[in-house]
Amino acid sequence: MVPRVDAFRTGDVLNGRQPMPLGSFLAHLPGGDWPLLVSEWGAVSRVYERDEELPIGPTDEQVHIVLGGCVRQERRPFGAAEGAPKITRFRGIGQLLGEAKLIEPGSEVRTTCLTTTWVMPCPVQRMNILLRRRPQIQLALLRSLEDRSRTDEKIYGTMTRTPLARVGALLVHLAEIAGTTDSAAPGHITILGPSQKDIADALLLGVSTVENTLRRLRTPDRDSGLPTDGILRNGYRQFVVTDLPLLRTIATRS
Fold first, then answer.
1. Which pLDDT score, from 0 to 100, does residue 5 have?
2. Of 25, 147, 164, 245, which one is least surrounded by beta carbons within 10 A?
3. pTM reported for the whole predicted model
4. Other C-beta atoms within 10 Å of 64: how many?
């Protein structure tokens, strides 16, 4: 089956009318520069289905801007042997992926679509020329990478925080970069794609710890201070946050 681009609000995105997540490349990009990128590569944007990998291997010659959907990136800095440490991160709308290719063309990162994902591929050589000619675009990319690094530190690098705070912080982040809303359920935000194991891998927690933490958000204890019906619903590769402000409060506790 051919993936359908009409699953996304293509007109709003390509015309710059859809707000982008704070800190993303497209959020930092000056509004006047987005039409330039669309004129260059908008026509070759394409959609990948869930579980497909984006071409960001050592021989690929493109970076990708995410226009819709969510991906999982995995790096194995100590090699691919069984049991070797793996670094897992989630990326969403507005992010530029494969940025290391701009300085080292042979770099790679395994990037798997967690949902149907719409991306704009940009040839590395032409993107580097554009960055040199348009310093404001280069600055937007650098600012987004700095914001991404700081966000990663807070979400993935705070090992001394409780599992509840850490899982909550990751769910808030996913809601912000890849969540969708439904007018039939005001205030509810749906996150599609990540599994409980994905979350466990990303946070370096046991799957059972993640399961117990999700249960606490779904069916909280009587003295937890949470609503009796919880603030989370979850199913197969799907999470529905029913009270994002409260989840954000939980996520910011030390």
1. 55
2. 245
3. 0.92
4. 27
